[in-house]
Amino acid sequence: MFGFETIVMCDESKRMRDINNAILLFPHYSLLNPDPHLEYNLSVKRNKLSRMLDLQPLLSAARQASALTRAIQRAGFDRASKDDEGDPVTSADYGAQAVICRALAAAYPDHAVIAEEGGKQFMTLLTDSQRERIAERVGDAVGERVSVDQVAAWLDHGRGVESDITWIIDPIDGTKGYIASRQYAIAIAALADGEPIAGAIACPGYGRGLLFYAQRGGAFVEDLDGGKPDRIAVSNVTAFNQARIVGSLERHKGDHPGAELVYDALGIHAKQRAPVDSQAKYAMVACGDADLFMRLMTADGHRHWVWDHAPGVALVRAAGGVCSDMDGAPLRFNAGAAMPNRGMVISNGRLHDRLLDAIRLILE
To answer: How far apart are CA 144 and CA 154, in angstroms?
Structure first.
């Protein structure tokens, strides 16, 4: 199962045959892709960009950011609320994003970036001493002296830029989990034409600490502290009564009453389900430690942000899984920071269509 494999790229004629076959075998394909031949051309472009992309500078940055978050967690962190809803932000959020954006500025200076935190927020929410401590932590992580102004500039690197590739960054996905010493993730993705083509998810609390990543059509995992990469793939589970389900710990992020109805209809018991913070859920599905999770549209229309999902979608797709919204449509990352989809369903693929059927039958 594990180990690097040679990734053989299909030739263009085979890609076109695959699209035509998909239209014949799965009528909904043409509904989700109104112009499949246009999608084919975009797919060729994305594949070329993916092959050209070197993820190694970002993997190194993810490791540095993980070391920073662990160090801050041990020493204690400053925190603030960054909006009226009381969403927390910590010194580690700013530090980790600065480390990652520093790597992007060096490796891909002309690429666009959409990231959760910002330089203005950093300069206004925190005190002078808090900013100085963050700059010191960033300097420790990257091995050089760093100023507060450099941190602020890195936080805003690539913002408002237009380019073929856009990087998505969530410096600490699952900040509440981080604060409570549960799961959290450092999440990075590269988008081309609004589609994730590569991604990395560092999970310091996943076992001994793991770094998952997707690039050039493959999904891999390494020890966060370094080591040999292993190829990963989603599970082969086909029966719902054998499936392992992960979900959010935060009630507002999923329609829990509706989810319960779906689970009951499919014969999924409570003992099969576990709440997990952050995009560690995506990593669990990608490596076969879990088989599915879903977030249904809540009554208050809770929005989903691209940085909370693009890295995970890149990983699950590369591992052979399927990601869609609750209507079966592809997840969209080309509409700015907020995703326009109604909820989301992430699975090993073998359970996906039956899960969507149950959602439609029960909830609509």
So the answer is: 15
d(CA 167, CA 94): 17
Q: Domain for residue 133, yes or no?
A: yes
One domain, residues 27 and 65: no
Q: Rounded CA gap, 244 and 291, in Å?
A: 5
Query: How far apart are alpha carbons 50 and 251 in whole angstroms?
Result: 36
Q: Any catalytic annotation for residue 156?
A: no
| pLDDT value at residue 257 | 74
Q: In this structure, is residue 24 part of a structural domain?
A: yes
d(CA 132, CA 149): 10
If asked whether residues 81 and 142 sit together in one domain, one would say yes
Per-residue pLDDT tens over the stretch 196-244 = 999 999 999 999 999 999 998 899 999 999 889 999 999 999 999 999 9
Quick one: pLDDT at residue 3?
31
The DSSP string of 165-212 is EEEEEEEEE-HHHHHTTS--EEEEEEEETTEEEEEEEEETTSTT-EEE
- Whether 238 sits among the annotated catalytic residues: the reply is no
Catalytic pick among 69, 78, 90, 93: 93
DSSP classification of residue 21: H
User: Domain range for residue 28?
Assistant: 12-52
Q: First-to-last CA distance in the chain?
A: 40
Do 108 and 163 lie in one domain? The reply is yes
Looking at the structure, do residues 260 and 352 belong to the same domain, yes or no?
Answer: yes
Is 318 within a domain? yes
Would you state the pLDDT for residue 40?
52
CB 187 within 8 A of CB 277: no
Which of the following is catalytic: 69, 173, 175, 255?
175
Residue 347 lies in a domain: yes
